[in-house]
Structure formats: structure tokens, C-alpha cells
Amino acid sequence: MSLLVQKYGGTSVGSVERIQAVAERVEAARVAGHSIVVVVSAMSGETDRLLNLARAIKNPPPSRELDAVLATGEQVTIGLLAMALLARGVDAVSYTGGQVRILTDSAFNKARILDIDASNVHTELKAGKVVVIAGFQGIDDQGNVTTLGRGGSDTTAVAMAAALKADECQIYTDVDGVYTTDPRIVPEARRLDRITYEEMLEMASLGAKVLQIRSVEFASKYQVTLRVLSSFVDGPGTLITTEENIMEAALISGVTLNRDEAKLTIVGVPDRPGVASTILGPIADANIEVDMIVQNSGADGAADFTFTVHRNEYDQALAICQQTNLEMKARAVQGDKRIVKVSIVGVGMRSHAGIASRTFRALAAEGINIQMISTSEIKISVVIDEKYGELAVRTLHAEFGLAEQV
Amino acid sequence: MSLLVQKYGGTSVGSVERIQAVAERVEAARVAGHSIVVVVSAMSGETDRLLNLARAIKNPPPSRELDAVLATGEQVTIGLLAMALLARGVDAVSYTGGQVRILTDSAFNKARILDIDASNVHTELKAGKVVVIAGFQGIDDQGNVTTLGRGGSDTTAVAMAAALKADECQIYTDVDGVYTTDPRIVPEARRLDRITYEEMLEMASLGAKVLQIRSVEFASKYQVTLRVLSSFVDGPGTLITTEENIMEAALISGVTLNRDEAKLTIVGVPDRPGVASTILGPIADANIEVDMIVQNSGADGAADFTFTVHRNEYDQALAICQQTNLEMKARAVQGDKRIVKVSIVGVGMRSHAGIASRTFRALAAEGINIQMISTSEIKISVVIDEKYGELAVRTLHAEFGLAEQV
Description:
Two copies of one chain form a homodimer. By secondary structure, chain A is an alpha/beta fold. Helix content of chain A is 35%, strand content 27%. In chain A, helix 11 (355-365) packs across helix 12 (389-399). The A-B interface holds A 16, 19-20, 50, 53-54, 56-58, 61-62, 64-69, 71-72, 75-76, 78-80, 82-84, 86-87, 93-94, 96, 98-99, 143-145 and B 16, 19-20, 50, 53-54, 56-58, 61-62, 64-69, 71-72, 75-76, 78-80, 82-84, 86-87, 93-94, 96, 98-99, 143-145.
């Protein structure tokens, strides 16, 4: 008898048939004796349809009114899913974000949850009902409808699980868990049984798109046990939890490949204090996010300053750097869009030395030149020529034995 | 400087272009110095789309959840219209039924408005904003979303006008007012400048589909001045108000033709007390609504009992009558679906004798046989063979000079 929060995304509720399938899955959990809260997204395509209607009226759409329009997508799904449950004889009731009272700030389109009054939901659960809650939305203290931004339904699910002190927050999606790496690159990639919040955060920020970063942060903060599962295939999925709940941490949990970045180098930068902010200040002013940063001081009193940005912002960043180059009298600006970032992630590397050198040696053995390196406590990232991306992933996946069950 | 409530139906907001046109019309009223509350329906087709989704899940759909789903239709429109107004530089804000606090009972799918807290709307109006309100919906005292049933947006508009003590409630539709009769039958039919609530109620109940009966009742009860206008063509429309506001009442205001009824006769009914309830009791038990009722007592101690029902319920009513016929040992049951009801409506007939005989004489002169007659204080209805329907309408329209301006 556990209290489970189950979250189903847009693809999982994308048609009447799929909504019926979700109802069947929820019923099975009820029959198994669990109390169930379901959080759902809008049916796939619906949010885009509404967004396009709004944009046809005014682009960009006024934010308060856009939220009033977008929130209807999830409201339709909760009603339909509650109907499907009632049709199966499972007592159920739908709640919008406002009806639960998911209180948010008033930052329309990207609101943050401030508080959840779960008393209504508790009462319904006690009466034996499945409570179907609209994800992605809330209400501010003025009674305005707000939305949490794309992917906000994951956040709603985790926040509800925290507020209800649920035993588990299950995120149903179109993959059956978190993998050691992309199975399209490495066929022997293995589904992880367990992974820590920190590792999941690194994997998500490196481009593994299973979960929204924000929902993982939320889960970590409130110690909500997450599980990623498939809506279409039965299976245990991947549990995301605290390090203490994972008996024997793997050295390395996963290898990721990020193709979204591009590299910029200013060559011959005067080697003096304040150079980094002179270069990156104008980039930040243009709202361009910088990922990796490397500076090499040369023997001649000049340095090379290299950083990466998202490829979509490369052209803009390049123009800014050329201006900066002139102003600071550096030697030249070089740019390269044909790079990838390969990373290994694992809490085990905290207590094991030599992971970095093993990584570099393995890549060198395949003739892969490393252009940039960046490390954190539980991650090592390298930037390499994009043509070696898949080879590097396969090499590191094999080097650290990720295909074998730990 | 008046306070106007404007209501636009589904056709008037059926596309992005039409929503822009409504915004233009609202802006014109603002520029003219009026305070404006707009009540809108779902975009045409949207309510049916949602209803079909729900029915595909469970038919009939559970009522509470159906309301949660259906209410989204109007919520989309209010957001889009508010955006269109903001895009034109007209300050505007959207409100759902729940956000206004249109309090209803909990009769899902056909809720009744109990109370409206108009304080939010007053505040917004005072701040110079156009308030765009979702029609057709409310909220019960538990916070559940309710809907008022089809055509409920008219009721919302009238109720808002009453709560706000608006100067006028303008119902924008696809016709430019209320006509003396259907212009497709009588080309010289004339738009009425003014008509009383009572006349409008009779006309609506007789099948003139300009306004919902319920909204006219509401307007009459709270003395809300209504105006029916076209969303597509400029014009004064038709004002619907109290008799005192109409200087010189016309003898007859309109002629209506109702093709939706069918006639049933039980022949040779024993002429004794209780017969009517013996016949109509089982009909009422089957939830079949009866319109006209006529009983002729014959000289032989037996009577013919005739009544009309909606054509859709004719077959069911016929089967019930055949059973009753056996039980009460009457002579026979006769039915006829090929009839129509033609009516004349006018408050003027209260103070003028001889309207009925003029009606019957005019029809007789055209060789039209009258099968049933029913009268009220301001209405005379006759049932005739359906093949004479249009002729009867044209005859009475001419007889009472309705084409001429009074």
C-alpha cells in the first residue's frame, strides 16, 4: 500500500486509445492496492496548436493570456482520463492546478511553484479516489492562471509527490529508463537500475532528454524518489534517488554526447587580469549562455581564450568576439562549429583517482585529439572533432565496462 | 458613457480573423467612450470536437468531467480575444467563469446561476480595461467547474449585465435582429426595432432561434435591456425590453412557423374525469414533452383527445398511446407527422378583440383547414397540414400588415 504519483506525458495521452491504455495502467496499480495521483500533460500536438492560434493573433502573445489559453490543454486531458477511469469502474476525479491550489508566483509562461495545498487531494485519496491533476499549471495569489513552462508537468509531478509525501514519483515516458548511453550509438548500452540525482542532473544538462533538469533538482531538494518508466512497455525502469540509497555506486554511470555546441577562440589575448570578463561580458549582455571555458597562458605573455556556446548562437557570438578582438588588440578570432562534447558521469569517480587519465589514454589510443577539457566532481567532459563523436562514446563505454551489470 | 455587455457567439469568434474583427468592434465601442464587458462562446466547432472526444471515451460522458473538458472551449476564446485587444492597444483582461466567480448549483451540464460576485470585474472596468468573460460556465461552491448547457453564453451575458447593472446587453449573432417572420419564407419580412420580453419568449418557444429562451426569461426577470445585432453587418438590431419602453405596441409583432411537431389523437375516449392524465401520464413518465392539447367531447359520450409532441419523440409516443388505447378501451389511435404549427404573437392582441377570428378567416380564404387551435394572452397558434405552412405564414404576415413600419 504505497502512495504513488504517476506522470504521463503528451505522447502517452496523445489519443483516445492511449488515454484508455493509461487508465488500464492506473487501474492495475489501484488493484495492486496503491493510492494513485496522476499528473498529465496536454495531448501531444495540443500545446503547439494553441500556441499557433495565439501567435496568429499576436506574436509574441501577451503572457497572462497565453497561460489562460495553454492551460486548457491539460484541463482537457484530466477530464478525459478521469472519464476513462470512471468507465472502468475506478473512482476518479480531475483537478486543475488552480483547483488543487498549486500556488505559483506571477511569472507567466515560466512560473515557479511557491506552495501546494494538498488537503483537497488528501481528502479525495482517503475517499478511495484516483486524483487526476493537470500538470504544467498553477494559480497565482490573484487567481490568475499560470504555466510552468515546457516540461513543467514533470515539475508538477515531483512537487505533488513532495507535498503528499508520496512513496515514489513515477515518470512515464516513451523510453523505458535511463541508459548508460544512447543505444542508437552503442547497441549494448544498458538500462541503469539506479542513478543518483547528481548523476541524472549532469546527464540531463549534457543532453540526455529523459527528464527536465528542473524536476530533478526539485526531486533532489525534497528527496522525492523518482522512477522513469515506459508507458508502452512494462518494466522496472530506472530509479533516481539519493546516493545513500544506492548500495554500490558504479564508477561511471553513463557516457553522453552533445552535438549542440560550437567553439570560439580569441588568439593572442594579453595575459592580464580582467581579460575573461572583457571577453565574456558582452556575450552575457547578449544573453548568450557559455558552457565550457578554457584559458591557456603562453610563454610570450599572451594567451588563447576558448569557450563554447550553443550552435544556434554561434554566429551572434562570433560577431561579438570580432568586435572584442579589435578593441583588446588580440591577434585573431577562430571559430569551429564542427565539434562535439563527450562526457562521462559517475559519483564513483569522487573516490577513485585516475579516471581522467584513463579517459584521455583511451581516446588517444583511438587517435582522437582532445581540444578542450572540463571536469566537475562527478563528470569529465572533452571537446573533440565532431567526426570522432560516436567513436569516442563507444570507446569510453567499453573502457569503463558500462555494458556489464554492476 | 454607457456600460455595455457584448456577447459574441461561436460563429462570431470562429477563426483568428473573426476574433480580430470582434476586437475591432469592441475597440470602436471603447473609442466611443463606453465601458465594455465581452462574453464569448467557444470557437464554432470546438464544443462538438470536445464532446466527441469525451464520447469516444465514455458515452454518455460522466457529467462533472464533461464540464471540466467543455469549459476549456470558452477559456481559449477569452485568451485569444484579450490578446487581439491588447494587440490593438486596447487594455483587456480575460476571466473564466470561476475567476469572475459566477456561482452556480452543482447540476453539471445544465447548471443554474445562483450568484455573481462582480467586484473583480468592477475593479478592472474602473481601471479602464475591457473584461473578456467566458460564457457558458461557472463554478459551484466546492470549486467544481460547471456549464450552463447549450446556449448558456447568452445567459452568462444577461446575468453579467444584471449583476453589473449594465445599460444594455448586446447579443451579437449571425442575423441582424428579430424579424416579423422568416425572410426565407416572406421576403418582405421586416426587422423589428423593438419587441417586448413576452413576445420574444413566445417567438423563441415557437422556434425563432435568435435567442435562448432562458436568457430572455432572465432578462425579463432582472429588467435587462437586450439588443440583438449582427457581428458582420452594422445596424441598430432589435431592442428587447419591457412593454413600458415601447411607445405604441404593434397589434402583431411576428408570425412563426414550427415544423418540429407531430400530432397524436386517441379516438373514442370515454368522456369521464381523469382521462387526460390517463393518456398523458405515461407520456410524461417517458420524459416526452407535450405542447398543444385539445379535447373534443362528442355527443355520444365519447371524446377525441389530441396532442402534439416533438417529431423526434413521435414514434415512442405513438407506441405508448397504442398501449393506453388498449387499456382504456378507446376506439383507435391516429398519428400525423405531416403537420406544422403557425403562430402569431403580439402584446397588442391583449387590448384588441377579433384577432382570432381575423386569423381563422384569412386562413379559410386560402382554403387552409385548421386542425388544432391554442391561444395565450399574446399568441394564437394553429396546427395545419404541413403543405400549407409557408402559405399560412405569408397570408397572416400580409393580413396583419407586418411588412409596413408601424
